[in-house]
Structure formats: C-alpha cells, structure tokens
C-alpha cells in the first residue's frame, strides 16, 4: 500500500489550501535589510580599515604593529561572521549563478529535501500524527499533501515546509532551522557584538571627540546657520531630541576645520570632525542592540526546547483564550468564568456558543500535539506504576482520545513540551548542532516524561476498556 494512502485525507482548517498572498511584508523586509547591512559594512570597512587603519595610523603615524594587532583579529571575526551569515542567506538560494553554487557548496549551505512520505513502520512507534491518528500532511502552497514530519512547519514567506523551523528571519531573507542553520544563527548573533567591539573600539574616542567639537560649534555665537536653527521655533516640531540632533546635523555641515587639523592626518575623515564617525558608531550600536535582543530571545526559547514560533504561538494562544473568555463573560454577564480560569490560562475555553472564527483560531494556535501510541508498546503494569489513576482518568475524560486498531491516539497536555529534552544544556546542544536532533526518519527525541505519561494514559485506557 502506498504510504500516503495511510496518511490523512485532505482536511480543512489551517493546512487547507489557501491562495498564497503575492505581497508579504517579510519578503520586502528580507530584501531591504540585507542591503542596509551591506551598506553599513562597506561604510564601516572604509572608515576602520582605509581611513583610520591605513591613512591615519599607518601613513600618518607609522604605527605598523598596533594597526596589525587591531585589524588582524577584526578581520578574523569579520570573516567568521560573514561565513555564518552566508551559510543562512544562501541556504534557500535559488540563484543559478555558478559563484552562488560554489559558495553554497563550500559553506555546506544546501539542505536536504523533506521526505514526502512517512516511514512505512510508523505504526510500530510512538509517532506524532493528526487528531485522527494519521500522519500529518501539508496542503499549503506547493506542498501538495506531502507528509509533514514532527517539528516541521510551513513557512508562509517561503511557501514551503521546513524541518525544525524556528522562524523566518528577514535579516537573512531565509529560515532559521534547528539544527540546520540555528548554529550559524547563534554564532552570527554572538559575533556581531564582538566584531563591533573589536573593529570599532579605536573609533569610540574619535567619534566622541567629533560629536563634542561639532556640538560646541553648534552652540557657537559665530555660527550663523546654527543661530537660525535655534531661533526657529518650528524646530521644536519633532520634539526636543530632534531639535538637538537637527542642530547638531546643521552644525556638522558647516563645521570649518582649521588648516592645522587638515594637515595633521592623511585622513580628513579622522582629522576633521564630521558626521561619518559618530553615525557609524551609533548605528553599529543599534545593530548590536538588535543582535543581542535576538540572541537572548532565541536562547530563552531554544533552552526550553521550544522554537521561536512555538513560544510566540503559545503566547498568542493564551491571549486568544483570554479574549474569548472575556467576550463570553461580557455577553452572558457571568464573571465567574474568568475568575475560575486564572490558574490555567492556557486551557481552551469549552466550546459551545463559541463563534467559528474563534474556534478555528484556537485550533490553529493550539500547542497540543497528537501522538499515536501502538498497543504493542504498552506494558499495563509497568506503565501505570508511577501514576495516580484518578489523574490519568481526568486526562482521559478531559481530552479527545481515540482508540483505534493497533494503537491509541493521545493529545499532549497544555503544559507539556514533548520535544523539550528536560535541561537547558541538552536543548542548547541540539540547537548548536552539537547533538543529533532527529533520526533518518525525521523523528525527534521525545521528552522521556511525556513519553512515559503517554504510555501510562494509553495503559489506563486499555485497563478501563476491559
Ligand atoms: Zn521562510
Ligand atoms: Zn507545507
């Protein structure tokens, strides 16, 4: 029998075929952000290497050793960061140019295609499936009903399913996937602040001096343009920050250097106060801030065994649950509903008078996964030993379980994270590519506690059915 015939039939809901939006904001940002990064790198490289390193310190001052000590490690970090960046950027490259092909091969950025069918023996193992107990399939965009292995998500921006999808990142115009590109992603985010510190460290003092001298010039009574700026009350229109920054920009354009300053260095950009050095230093600080924010948010979800999307969906789900409850409370005038649910904000509201759109959204955002538990793996005595029968019965009564030939389909509990390996370091090792994430059949290691709980619940169901 064809493996796909054992899969689910085409279903409605979030995986149902929807026309793909032609214009997506992430695709646009993904084209703009790499260009901004490239522009910044060219500007910073010119300033650090040519103006400051070569013209000012080498040609003017003859400092060979200190220039080498600054530029060699800076270049090393730059190349490592560039390698990490290209490894992600090229991973979805559809470019047919030979140089892109060469780079993609060199960096090992090509990724294997997802298998279209589940392994033929999936019924013999604990296997993530849909609510009906069949291997999940994806019908969106070009996926065409292919099998959707565990921890695979459809990226709407790329129009295809990705294994271990963490998120679609506009910085790279590509997907961050565990464990394919997540190591490069984390390396890049760590290297950006290091590169900033190493490469721009000698610029900090100069940038500060330029900023200060221009500011003094901005406040100078002889500076006609600045006098006009400060006298004009319309310059308050953008708020006090804009008034000061604008005053500074006006002064920087009219800053007149003395001839002594010009001849002191081969580099005018270093010797004469101007806006370039302060702009490169402050915008670099902005990029470092974004990189650090991304690094900490990624680490916090990855160390909990969750992807960024998992984390965001959980938050969105609990927000939606609360909003549905609020709507219901206001319409029925019953305030007990909300109070009674505070202990378990992730729990789905009971359907009833819930509008279809709410139910569909809750279903789409729900962090609950379904697992096929084969009867052959259940040892009734051993499985239920550590569990309280009442607790298991409570799970069975409260959830949609289905007993089928050869196995039982069980949902996870709301607080369970089946692919969380239990400790932060094991989860991080997996995201850093230091341990194997999935086997050759795209099966990920299940949390031992979740696996034991699933087996115990299945054993209890078997016991009760006798
Ligand atoms: Zn994508
Ligand atoms: Zn898909």
UniProtKB/TrEMBL annotation:
Its EC number is 2.3.1.225. The keyword Iron-sulfur does not apply. It catalyses: L-cysteinyl-[protein] + hexadecanoyl-CoA = S-hexadecanoyl-L-cysteinyl-[protein] + CoA. Coiled coil: none annotated. The chain crosses the membrane at residues 28-47, 67-86, 185-208, 275-296. GO terms for biological process: protein targeting to membrane. It is found in: Endomembrane system. The DHHC domain is required for palmitoyltransferase activity. This is Palmitoyltransferase. GO terms for molecular function: protein-cysteine S-palmitoyltransferase activity. Residues 139-311 form the Palmitoyltransferase DHHC domain. Keywords: Acyltransferase, Lipoprotein, Membrane, Palmitate, Transferase, Transmembrane, Transmembrane helix.
């Amino acid at each position: 029998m064809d493996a796909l015939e054992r899969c689910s039939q085409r279903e409605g809901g979030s995986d149902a075929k929807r026309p793909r939006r032609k214009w997506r904001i992430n695709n646009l940002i993904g084209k703009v952000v790499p260009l901004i990064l490239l522009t910044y790198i060219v500007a910073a490289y010119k300033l650090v290497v040519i103006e400051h390193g070569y013209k000012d310190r080498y040609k003017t001052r003859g400092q060979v050793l200190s220039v080498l000590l600054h530029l060699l490690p800076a270049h090393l970090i730059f190349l490592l960061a560039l390698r990490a960046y290209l490894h992600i950027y090229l991973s979805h490259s559809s470019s047919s140019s030979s140089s892109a092909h060469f780079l993609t091969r060199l960096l090992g950025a090509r990724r294997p295609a997802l298998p279209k069918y589940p392994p033929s023996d999936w019924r013999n193992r604990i296997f993530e499936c849909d609510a009906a107990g069949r291997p999940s399939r994806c019908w969106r965009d070009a996926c065409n009903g292919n099998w959707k292995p565990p921890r695979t998500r459809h990226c709407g921006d790329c129009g295809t399913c990705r294994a271990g999808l963490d998120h679609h990142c506009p910085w790279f115009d590509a997907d961050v996937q565990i464990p394919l590109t997540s190591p490069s992603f984390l390396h890049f985010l760590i290297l950006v602040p290091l590169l900033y510190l190493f490469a721009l460290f000698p610029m900090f003092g100069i940038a500060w001096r330029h900023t200060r001298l221009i500011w003094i010039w901005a406040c100078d009574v002889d500076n006609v343009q600045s006098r006009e700026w400060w006298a004009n009350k319309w310059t308050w229109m953008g708020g006090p920050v804009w008034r000061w920054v604008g005053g500074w920009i006006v002064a920087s354009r009219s800053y007149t250097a003395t001839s002594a300053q010009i001849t002191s260095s081969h580099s005018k950009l270093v010797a004469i106060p101007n806006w370039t050095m302060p702009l490169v230093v402050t915008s670099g600080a902005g990029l470092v801030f974004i990189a650090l924010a991304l690094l900490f948010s990624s680490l916090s979800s990855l160390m909990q065994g969750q992807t960024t999307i998992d984390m965001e969906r959980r938050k969105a789900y609990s927000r939606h649950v609360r909003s549905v409850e609020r709507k219901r409370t206001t319409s029925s005038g019953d305030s007990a509903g909300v109070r009674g649910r505070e202990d378990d904000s992730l729990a789905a509201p009971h359907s009833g008078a819930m509008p279809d759109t709410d139910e569909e959204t809750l279903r789409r955002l729900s962090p609950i996964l379904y697992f096929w538990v084969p009867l052959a793996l259940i040892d009734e005595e051993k499985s239920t030993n550590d569990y309280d029968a009442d607790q298991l019965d409570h799970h069975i009564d409260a959830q949609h379980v289905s007993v089928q030939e050869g196995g039982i389909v069980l949902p996870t509990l709301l607080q369970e994270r089946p692919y969380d390996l239990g400790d932060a370091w094991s989860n991080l090792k997996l995201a850093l590519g230091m341990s194997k994430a999935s086997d050759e059949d795209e099966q990920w290691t299940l949390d031992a506690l979740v696996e034991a709980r699933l087996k115990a619940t299945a054993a209890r169901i078997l016991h009760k059915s006798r």
